[in-house]
Structure formats: C-alpha cells, structure tokens
Amino acid sequence: MTARQSLFVGGSWVEPDGGHYEVIDPAGEQTVGWAPEASRDQVLAACAAAREAFGPWSRTPPGERAAVLGRAAGIIAGRLKEYAELARAETGATLGTARALQVGVAAARFRRYARVEPAEWPIPPQINEAGPMGKAGVMGALAVRQPVGVVTCITSYNNPWANPAGKVAPALAMGNTVVVKPAPQDPLSVYRMAEALEEAGAPPGVVNVVSGSRTEVGEAAVASPDVDMVSFTGSTAVGRRIAEVCGRGMKRQLMELGGKGAALVFDDADLGSAVAGIGTTFSFYSGQICTAPTRVLAQRGIHDRLVEQLAAYAGRLKVGDPREPDTVVGPVISAAHRDRVESYIELGRKEGAVVVAGGERPDLPTGFYVAPTLLADCTGDMRVAREEIFGPVVVVIPFDDEEEGIALADDTDYGLIDYVWSGDVARAFRVARRLRAGGVGINTVGRNMEAPFGGFKQSGVGRDVGSYALHAYSEVQSIVWPG
C-alpha cells in the first residue's frame, strides 16, 4: 500500500512534477501510500486533454457511453474487497461503511448511469398569427439535452468513492469529459476509479485525475479556459471562491456545500426512531457528513427524555479501530480536524452548553478520534448551533410550539437537509413544506436515490442524483421548425 501513485492525464500515467506527499491512515497513523503532487502545467494539460477528447466522446452514441459505465461498475464491484480496504485506510471509515457505502455505492452509481435515458422531449406546438415576422403558422419544437463540455469535478474527503462516482458517472453519460481533482487527504481511491474506467474502455482524455496538497492544483482546474463547468463538494467558504472564478468565465456550476441539519422532534414522535436517526451523526463517517442532523430541536414535552436517550445511545457506541467488526465510530480524517472539532466542544462549554455525553478524547494509542458528544441546554445563537462542526457532535435546543420550531430550524445560513419526527403525518408534511431546505426527511434519515439532492441558501447551487444529475451536467437546447 505504499507505492508512489502517478497522475492520470490524457490516457497516460504521468509522473508528477511536484513529487509525492504522504497519505496517512487516520486510525493507525501509518503511511497508506504516496499521492502525486501535480504542477499547474500538468493540471492545464489534463484540462486540454479533456477538451480534445470532448468532441469524439460527445458524438459517441449514448448506448456505447453507457456500456463503458456498466463495465466500470462491474470492475469496481469485482474488486470490492481490495478497494474497500484502501478506502478504509485512507478515510478511517469502518470496514462495513467502506464496503457498502463507499465502494458499493460507487458501483451502484456507475450502474445507474449505464441506463440510457431520452435526451430530448417534445414541446406542444404553438400557433403563431401573421405579423411582421411572417405568415401565420404552427411552430413545432424540441428541447434537447446537450453536454456542457469539460467538467472539473472537485470531490470531498468523506467519501472518495461515492462522491466522485456521483459526479463522473452522470457527466460521462451525458457526453462530457472530466478532470477530477480529489481531496488531498484521500486521493488514492479516485485513481483506482480511473483505472477501472480505463479498463472499461473510456477513451484517452475522457477521464483525467490530478491531485495535490496545494491549493494551486484546484485553482488551475477551476480557472483553465478549457473548463466549461465545475462540480464541487466541500465547504461553503471554498465554494464561494470557486463561484467567483466561475462567474468571471460564465462557467456552469454545481455546488454541494455545508450543512447544519435541523431535526425537529415533536412531543408525539417515536423517540426510538428519532434517537436512532439522530445517532447516525455520532457514527456515520464520525459525523463528517453535510447531511447529518446535528441540530436537534426538541419540543419541551419530550426534551429531557430525548436528551437522556441520546446520551445513552452515544455512550454505547464503540469508538476504535475501524478494522474491528464491532467498531461503530472510527477516527476523523486528520489530527488538524480532530483539533478543530475539539475546539468547538470547548467553545460550547464556554458558551454555556452542558456536555452530557463525550467531550473527552478517547484513550486510544493511535488515531484521530473524537468521542460522540452531546451538548444540551443550547440556544440558537451559540456558534456550536450555527457553524458546521463536521464531527460527531450534536447540539440540543428546546422549543415550545410548531411555529417556534420552524423558526429555529430556518434560523441558519444553511439549508441542505432537515428532518421532522412526529406521529402526526399531516403535521410532519406541513412542517416539511415550510422548511427552507433542499430536502426533508420525515421520520427517517434515509434517502431516495432518485430524489433531487442539493441545498437552499449557503448549502449550494443546483440539484443532482438520479435523472436530475443528467440535467445538471447538460445544457438544454431548443430546436424549432415550422409545422
């Protein structure tokens, strides 16, 4: 696992101009491998290769493009064990998570976009009366999805398989070519994805991967004149900087940014279901997920019981080596991020929150671990209740009635996914429709993988997943003719 990785540019494996940097296992703190540090010129070369490949690939019949994606899905699924072990080592995810929710979801996403969907649809004819533009007539029209062009895909560290697959697969299905810039913490898995696509028959230049620990790599991949669109998953702060560059070049954008999901738990909720759902923040990627229900808004009638049950739930979770089958909570991605999460817990104490679970660093010999932490007696104006912590930390805020709960939920810069727990289905749907969030889970943290995904407010721009991703990676052209 300690080989020196090459870049993938224009169908060739290329030695990086900037040498290599170390990829660290967040659990054992040992070297997983050596990632390539691309130079600015190499990034621009990757963008140029994608531009050259775009014309032929965009004219390739959709069924042939789909066949490449289908073969890639089979290759990834066939190497599940090998790829999952690498993902576990790079990210610190538990082995079960790496298999099912990282590599397994990636294979499923390639398989999903190996299904050809219609790229055009008719528009009802329009009757035009005679006028300065000509005689009376009936005008027919078609709306046609066309590929955008070259897409830079900048991916997140929390899932180096599912996140890039969710960008690359629909982009390629639509006839775009891609330059993938993986997160610097865990880029090696993305190179395995590129290998699978190369083996599946993706022509040279259709897929390119360039990595680096320096910001200039991502900056070059965004600013290149050969790039038509940027698809980014990451922090809102970085998303703003990317959007500024895209705005100057009128590049298309798809942004999936931060979140501070509210979980409204009403007095009539099934507390067992609510606790299990909210508890995923403690365990799922160790809270390093933008969709996590990190702000619990508890109606006063169940507030104390909910806090008690969440604290007990957090205390039962095994924190430790993600290779062990009974481990539920692995490490966060790095020592620096552990320090950041711990600083927020300390900030919560200073702001007046009460730590009712966790709050101390686990006593483990190696690894960047944070104990599942529950902060109670919080208010909506506390920084721990307003800023994305991106770790296994949940804050609880009480509310009295439905109106106050909705107001608290929407009192945030973010709007990715919120949650409602209530035994009154009519109320749950009524509340969901009023929440300013791109998605709302009712009595569940589960997802429908055909439903549109994206955020309101500072949580992003655009929608993807399912057929919505095909729209996201396309321009819509109208073709009009006289009937």
Describe this structure in words.
The protein is an alpha/beta fold and 483 residues long. It folds into two domains: 7-257 and 459-482, 3-Layer(aba) Sandwich (Aldehyde Dehydrogenase, Chain A, domain 1), CATH 3.40.605; 262-450, Aldehyde Dehydrogenase, Chain A, domain 2 (3-Layer(aba) Sandwich). It has 16 helices and 20 strands. It is globular and about 70 Å long.
CATH architecture classification of the largest domain: 3-Layer(aba) Sandwich
Specify Rg, calculated over alpha carbons: 24 Å
Average pLDDT reading: 97
Q: Could you tell me how far the N terminus lies from the C terminus, measured between alpha carbons in angstroms? A: 64 Å
CATH H-level homologous superfamily name of the largest domain: Aldehyde Dehydrogenase, Chain A, domain 1
Helix content: 25-40%
Mass-distribution shape: globular
Summed up, the helix count is 16
Strand content: 15-25%
Alpha-beta classification: alpha/beta
Largest sheet: 7 strands, mixed
Q: State the name of the first-level CATH class of the largest domain.
A: Alpha Beta
Query: Would you tell me which CATH topology of the largest domain applies?
Result: Aldehyde Dehydrogenase, Chain A, domain 1
Number of domains: 2
Outline:
InterPro entries: Ald_DH/histidinol_DH (IPR016161), Ald_DH_C (IPR016163), Ald_DH_N (IPR016162), Aldehyde_DH_dom (IPR015590). The chain has 483 residues and is α/β, with parallel strands linked by helices. The chain has helices at 40-59, 62-78, 80-91, 95-112, 162-173, 188-199, 215-223, 236-249, 271-278, 280-283, 300-316, 335-351, 383-386, 402-410, 425-434, 467-472; strands at 7-9, 12-14, 20-24, 31-36, 120-128, 137-147, 150-154, 177-181, 207-209, 229-233, 252-256, 262-265, 295-299, 354-357, 373-376, 393-399, 417-421, 439-442, 460-461, 474-482.
